[in-house]
Amino acid sequence: MAQLVYYSSRSGNTAKFVARLGMDALRIPISPDEPMPAPDQPYVLVTPTYADGNGKGAVHPQIIRFLNDPARRALIRGVIAAGNRNFGQFYAAAGDIIARKCNVPRLYRFELAGTDEDIARVTAGLQRFWRETCLTTA
User: Fold this and answer.
1) d(CA 78, CA 129)
2) Which 3 state secondary structure label does DSSP give 94?
3) Residues 23, 38, 119, CA angle at the centre, nearest 5°?
4) If we measure between CA atoms, which residue out of 68, 67, 65 comes closest to residue 77?
5) Does the global pTM surpass 0.90?
6) How confident is the model at residue 1 (pLDDT cuts 50, 70, 90)?
7) 16 near 27, Cβ under 8 Å?
8) d(CA 82, CA 75)
9) 49, 80 in Cβ contact below 8 A?
10) For residue 28, what are the β-bridge partners?
11) Is 2's pLDDT higher than 70?
């Protein structure tokens, strides 16, 4: 199965979500002093959303730093975004921003650490996505 790459803040919501998926995953470190992961195969990025009341700052600087590397960016195939519905139109906005900038689909969005239904949908969706992606690139 292809990798997931994710960023999770100290709150750990995204990390909990990814752990519940039970798939291979690389974590983008919280500290800018730690080395970035180097995915060696296509991956789906799982990201929380950070935004002020105007939607600014939705994509965390560590994720921007990760994606600014052309080799890492070349392997992204999709994005899954976390958010908080309290942010209204900016709910999970990081996923839309990254999808647009990297020309990949936003595959799913979930709130906070996700629900059991989110886990089931993402698990099934990723299996289908990777199967179809492999068929179209073979």
Assistant:
1) 9
2) helix
3) 20
4) 67
5) yes
6) very low
7) no
8) 21
9) no
10) 7
11) no
Would you place residue 134 in the very low, low, confident or very high pLDDT band (cuts 50, 70, 90)?
A: low
To 10 degrees, the CA torsion angle through 132, 133, 134, 138?
110
DSSP H helices, the chain, are 13-21, 61-67, 70-74, 93-102, 116-137
For 23, 49, 108, the CA distances from 68, given in Å and listed in that order, are 25, 18, 23
Over residues 85-114, the mean pLDDT reads: 93
Task: Tell me the mean pLDDT in the region 109-118.
Answer: 94
Cβ-based neighbour number of residue 111 at 10 Å: 15
Q: Output the six-digit token pair for 111.
A: 């709130």
Backbone angles phi, psi at 73, to 5 degrees: -65, -35
Q: Which two tokens stand for residue 71?
A: 């080799």
**Tens digits of residue pLDDT in 39-88:** 999 999 999 998 777 778 899 999 999 999 999 999 999 999 999 888 88
Coil, helix or strand for 29? Answer: coil
Count of beta carbons in the 10 Å neighbourhood of residue 21: 18
CB 28 within 8 A of CB 66: yes
In this structure, the number of other CB atoms found within 10 A of the CB of residue 79 comes to 27
